[in-house]
Structures are given as structure tokens and as C-alpha cells.
Amino acid sequence: MTRVADAPARRAPLLRAAVWVLVATGVTTSALGAGDAKRGANTFAEECGDCHSPKEGKAKKGPPLFGVVGRAAGTAPEFAYSDALKASGITWSPEKIDSYITLPKKTVPGGKMKYDGLADAGARADVIAYLQSLK
């Protein structure tokens, strides 16, 4: 007989597998639900803030991300983008940002971003909600 207390431990591998299926099949944050901009600001500071500024016109190692949602990739005038990103044809929609911050090197092969990606779909949704608030 299985004890009720053992149920969460038995489900953990299934939950991990389900998350990886969602990531591998390209399920985006819009399919997973809306993020929280406040949490996203914290995650942005931890994961993105060393290289990207949320302020308009303030490039760091990477381009500023103020107003990035809806912007064509490689077009912020204060940053020297890779040829790969400039030629990507990407417009930064929430779905495309989700794909990019999941696996940047897969989304834009040959790009300059030195970041391996953010596997947590909830954290990505939060960062995207934060980026959407930067207008």
C-alpha cells in the first residue's frame, strides 16, 4: 500500500519531465500564463543586469532592454550587434524573447550573447512581464 505522504516524491520526476517536454517543444510563456513584473525585476537584476540595462539609451556589455518588446533585433543605436543577430529578422515579441532567453545560441546561432539560458519557464515569464513594463 502506498502512503499519501509518498505521493509528492513519486510525482517529482514526472513534473521535471513535463517541464522539459514544454521547453523542448517550444511551449512559450503565453501558453504557460502571465508572469509577474515585480519578480521579473529581481530575476532580471540577478540574471541579466550585469550585461543589460533596463534604462533607455544605456548600453553595457549588451544592449539596453528598455522598450525591447516590439523592437526589431539589432537596432538599438548605442550597441554594436553581431552580424547574426542583425540578420536574424527577429522582432522581439514575448514568444521570441522566451525562445531566446531559453537557449540564446540555438535561437541565434553565431550571436555574441554569452549566456547559456534560463530553464525556469516561470522565471522567464516574470522577466518578460518586466521587459513589457519598460516603456
Automatic annotation (TrEMBL):
<protein>
    <submittedName>
        <fullName>C-type cytochrome</fullName>
    </submittedName>
</protein>
<dbReference type="Pfam" id="PF00034">
    <property type="entry name" value="Cytochrom_C"/>
</dbReference>
<feature type="domain" description="Cytochrome c">
    <location>
        <begin position="35"/>
        <end position="135"/>
    </location>
</feature>
<keyword id="KW-0349">Heme</keyword>
<dbReference type="InterPro" id="IPR002327">
    <property type="entry name" value="Cyt_c_1A/1B"/>
</dbReference>
<keyword id="KW-0813">Transport</keyword>
<dbReference type="InterPro" id="IPR009056">
    <property type="entry name" value="Cyt_c-like_dom"/>
</dbReference>
<dbReference type="InterPro" id="IPR036909">
    <property type="entry name" value="Cyt_c-like_dom_sf"/>
</dbReference>
<keyword id="KW-0249">Electron transport</keyword>
<keyword id="KW-0408">Iron</keyword>
<keyword id="KW-0479">Metal-binding</keyword>
